Design the sequence.
């Protein structure tokens, strides 16, 4: 089984190919609003480095968000196009669980934060059990200050990761129960997407492409502006 993983939820574009024996090739590029220009060449490059063509791919895995509206649409469109042509199933995983999987730690909770702009973050919380992550707080939107207050009240040891943690690090200063993740945990990783997707496929959770939908958590900014009442 070979999985092609596509991740365009954040400022980082990621592509990887792998299977039950591990990742064969991967590529990542960080650059705002560059998903359209970089995704197709990255897919070609990763296929070349892995020594396989798209005709060898059995499953498409895609990051369904939350994240940037344009990036999510670009990634899902490409993933569904390949799945449709190849008539193969898909696996959709959210960007917060991907971050948590990359930072899994059996001794404390992982709290991934993705920058949602407007001084807010997309957030959730996970714990690690038997090498897998389990959701303990569902994906939602909050201010960094509100999250810091909740963590301070609970006092439970946690690891905070993601680009939201980087941008709003000052909100968590002096929080004794929390540690901030390093640079390697800033963005979801396409290699982690491969690993998680393989597990989902083996558990029988791959689905037809039309069943995959994006996780937005809130309307697009342009849609919000259009709905505002006029004076």
Sequence:
């Amino acid at each position: 089984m070979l999985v092609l993983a596509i991740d365009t939820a954040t400022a980082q574009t990621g592509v990887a190919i792998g299977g039950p024996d591990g990742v064969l090739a991967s590529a990542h590029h960080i650059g705002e609003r560059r998903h359209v220009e970089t995704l197709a060449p990255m897919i070609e490059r990763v296929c070349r480095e892995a020594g396989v063509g798209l005709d060898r791919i059995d499953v498409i895995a895609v990051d369904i968000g939350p994240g940037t509206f344009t990036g999510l649409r670009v990634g899902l469109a490409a993933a569904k196009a390949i799945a449709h042509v190849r008539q193969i199933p898909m696996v959709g995983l959210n960007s917060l669980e991907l971050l948590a999987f990359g930072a899994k730690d059996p001794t404390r909770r992982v709290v991934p934060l993705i920058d949602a702009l407007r001084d807010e973050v997309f957030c959730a919380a996970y714990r690690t059990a038997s090498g897998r992550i389990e959701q303990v707080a569902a994906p939602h939107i909050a201010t960094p200050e509100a999250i810091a207050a909740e963590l301070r009240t609970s006092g439970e040891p946690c690891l905070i990761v993601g680009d939201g943690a980087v941008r709003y690090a000052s909100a968590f200063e002096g929080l004794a129960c929390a540690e901030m993740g390093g640079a390697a945990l800033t963005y979801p990783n396409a290699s982690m997407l491969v690993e998680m997707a393989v597990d989902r496929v083996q558990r029988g959770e791959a689905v037809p492409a039309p069943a995959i939908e994006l996780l937005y958590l809130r309307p697009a900014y342009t849609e919000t502006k259009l709905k505002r009442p006029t004076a």
